[in-house]
Design brief:
The protein has 131 residues and is α+β, with helices and mostly antiparallel strands. The chain is 21% helix and 49% strand. The protein has helices at 13-22, 64-70, 84-93; strands at residues 2-9, 26-34, 39-46, 49-56, 73-81, 97-104, 112-118, 122-128. It is globular, with a radius of gyration of 14 Å. The protein binds nickel (II) ion.
């Protein structure tokens, strides 16, 4: 598994994007609306690192509660994996609990992602490698 991106939860997507751009980040993929999770997502890159800005657009979004607790902050590392289902099972055996079962992610070209949470580590995202 290889690191794909670091996910940042932000209240104001466009303002956060502008602030990242002022630090030298470039937009890799324009904003995509994920209607399943009710978030807007934009991918930025700098120095070979990829950051995903995630911002809820609806009060029923799954990340609204977390954003209220953490404020604007990084909240997950995403790992790209060869076989999502195998890795999910491997992590579940290692005390991770499924938070968001494997489902297509519109912001990742429809590739499947899963979110798991570990008692001492927090949230991990797994992304099925494509192509
Ligand atoms: Ni992510």
């Amino acid at each position: 598994m290889t690191i794909h991106h670091i996910g940042y939860l932000v209240k104001k997507l466009e303002r956060a994007r502008t602030a990242f751009e002022a630090l030298g980040y470039g937009v890799e993929r324009e904003t995509v609306r994920d209607e399943f999770r009710k978030v807007d997502i934009v991918f930025l890159v700098k120095d070979g690192y990829r950051v995903e800005l995630v911002s809820p657009y609806d009060p029923s979004s799954v990340v609204v509660g977390l954003l209220a607790r953490t404020g604007n902050a990084p909240y997950h590392v995403c790992y790209e994996v060869d076989d999502l289902d195998v890795e999910v099972e491997r992590l579940r055996d290692a005390r991770y609990v499924m938070q968001d079962a494997p489902a297509p992610a519109p912001a990742c070209g429809g590739a499947r992602v899963a979110f798991l949470i570990h008692p001492y580590l927090g949230i991990v995202e797994l992304l099925q490698k494509t192509g």
